[in-house]
Sequence to fold (241 residues):
Amino acid sequence: MSDPHKRPHGQQQQQQQQQQQQQEQQQEQQQEQQQEQPPPPPPPPPPPPQQQPQPDDHEPIPLLQSLAPSIFVSLANDLAATPFVPPASRIARLNAILAALDTHAVHVRSNMLALVRRECVRILREATAAEANITSRNSHEQQQQQQQQPPRKHRADGDVATMIANMQAPHDPSKDYNNADIPLPDFARVQPASVREKATRDLMASVSRALSELRGFDAHIAGNKAFYEQALKREIESEAQ
Fold:
């Protein structure tokens, strides 16, 4: 007489063996199918990276009319994201004004120098283009004119004698030689004889103008700082009393 408790266990083992055999057969069939199928084609090569557009070195530069746009500088912080916290006292407010004035002056000077550099690049580009447009015929005609005509003098006959006489003059104790109000040279009085000479004159005029405006801006900032520094000094003395 068979044990009824052992029969179900034997049936479970048979079922598990059958399932394993079926799984092995399915794996063998899949392997055979993969071997019969041709290998998949290789993936296409990735597209070449797109080149970023390079800045055009010959992009036209407008004539520099004024350095006034230099006063517009970028904001250091996002005003919408950073809430404004008013100064706690007048002394804190004046200190914040002086700090902002120094920072603003540095950025304005940087903008002024950048505009002057761009103007110098524009002058050099125009000179290069003007030289390229000169034909060999015009160059030959200019050489003939220079051979036939004497070279032009850029100074009067008595200028050298006057300059040497001033250099040899004795020191006059009654005069103040520390004169800072020296007029700037007038480059427009002498007409340039060539494209390169014109470019040189324009470069000198641009740099001279920039130096003059930088000195004026520094004097303006110094006056503003002196005003707020005096106000700060008065506030500190008032609180100390």
